[in-house]
# Entry
Amino acid sequence: MAIIAKIGQVLNTPIQIGKTVNHSSNPFAASTFKGNVLTADVFETKAPKASMKDKLKLSAFVGSIGDAFPTFRKGIESVVAFGNRMKEGFSSAVNKINEIGSMEISIDFAGAGRAIKSSFASIADNYSVQKLRKQDVASLEAMWKDLSGLNVAA
Amino acid sequence: MKDNKNRKIRNIIEALCLHEDADSIRVLEQMGTNSSDDEIRELTARALVRKNMHDSLAVTITNKGKGINDMSTVVAMSTINELLALDNKDEALKILSDTVEMHSDEEVRENARSVKALMALS
# Structure
């Protein structure tokens, strides 16, 4: 008889996890992790119901969030894009500077002088092939004879 | 001074080579191939070959002491090289064949035969 009374006492005793005692109507409270039991009663709301005016305000707020976020996103994206452009521009500018820095800029005055002298000489030279080609054969023969010292009749 | 004179003569030879007047061949033959200067003879022979005309080629192939028959090896070899470099060798081969068959001088015939063999191989 005493044993039966003991069993009945054990069954009637509420299950305790840790030192927290669950006084809520949440049936899963006993199995909550490490005894951190939800104290709020999720089955029975005690919060006052939102009035129609509050609902309108909340609706407007949600709508404003929907409108505002793309604007923020666009703003953020544009900032990121601007940063990337700046970065690309800067890197390309750095590359250009490096290219310019690696280039050898020199002016060949001696070569230019020779080229100018050569072109002037060819213009002034009556014995250039271009000028000689335009003369008749008799003239060329006479010139050749003059140069060879054979043209004594003149 | 001599270099300047040779440069002028070289340009005259080049101008005669490019001249379309057939009389340019006569001038080149008289003035160039009879020159005592090896360089002038060489330049003249090469110019006559580059003209690639019957009369100009005949001067360098059939005449003893000129072109491929020149006493100077340099002049003869330069003339042969110019013949080998021709794009159209038909006229040169025809003159060489006629020279091999009909020329009176044995040395000229032998030279023509050798050059013809070289041109056939090239």
About this structure: The helical segments of chain B are 2-18, 23-32, 38-51, 54-62, 73-84, 90-102, 106-121. Chain B is about 75% helix and 0% strand.
